Amino acid sequence: MRSVSLAALAAGLLCASAWAAPEIHNLELVGQLPLGPGFNAGVWVQRNTAYVGTWGTPSACPGLGVKVVDLTAPASPRLIQRLAAYPNTSAEDVVVRSVDNRSFRGDLLAVGLQSCRSAQTSVRRGVELYDVSDPRSPRLLSFFPTGQESRGVHELDLVTTRSDGRVLLLLATIARFRLLDVTDPANPRQLSDWNLAERTGEAA
Question: How many CB atoms lie within 10 A of CB 45?
Fold first, then answer.
């Protein structure tokens, strides 16, 4: 019985080793930049620039906003700007898209803002839009507030429609989805608002 058990164990180990994914070491560290203190979150790279979001917790919320890093020299990345840094606020999700229309031409950054503490009513909640065509000199174009129904914008994306070239901003809070027209990013306009909590109540 002992020999059968050992044989089964050996066969199992051989099978496991046969199916294990091979280790491939084909990445090389080119450069690095410590971005502390604080908690780094989503990263978006546009051209030679990285936009690094940050987050916080109810007990630790440094409110560091978005860190803008110059990657022109990959071996020596440099922090060149900070955006959307507000006390008691997370700026986790960032998206940058190239836009070219009558109202705006350049790189457009959308930053989702959340309160670290749901009970705080004076904290900035919503989305900010920046012109980052020149990352060294970003320009705040607008702010769209999402109100107090949640901590703020948790997920977002920017898309351009193929049919008419409109730029749409998709915003998700904990239980709500909003669709905004930001073709003119200085004047965002809400197109629709879908509330999951209300829909659930209707279904019940």
Answer: 12
Closest CA to 180 of 143, 139, 130, 131: 143
The secondary structure of residue 9, as a DSSP letter, is H
Which uninterrupted H or E stretch holds 178?
A: strand 176-181
* Long-range contacts (CB closer than 8 Å, 24 or more residues apart) made by 34-37: 35/67, 35/69, 35/79, 37/62, 37/64
Q: Contact, 84 vs 101, CB < 8 A? A: no
In sequence order, what are the residues at sequence separation of 6 or more whose Cβ sits closer than 8 angstroms to the Cβ of residue 111? 53, 65, 66, 83, 84, 91, 93, 94, 127, 128, 129, 130
The pLDDT tens digits of the residues spanning 59-82 come to 899 999 999 999 999 999 999 999
**Sheet of 176-181: strands edge to edge?**
155-160, 167-172, 176-181, 189-195
Asked if residue 77 has a cis previous peptide bond (ω within 30° of 0), the answer is no
Residue type, position 78, single letter: R
- Give one DSSP letter per residue of 153-168, joined into a string: --EEEEEE-TTT--EE
The whole-number average pLDDT for the span 92-118 is 95
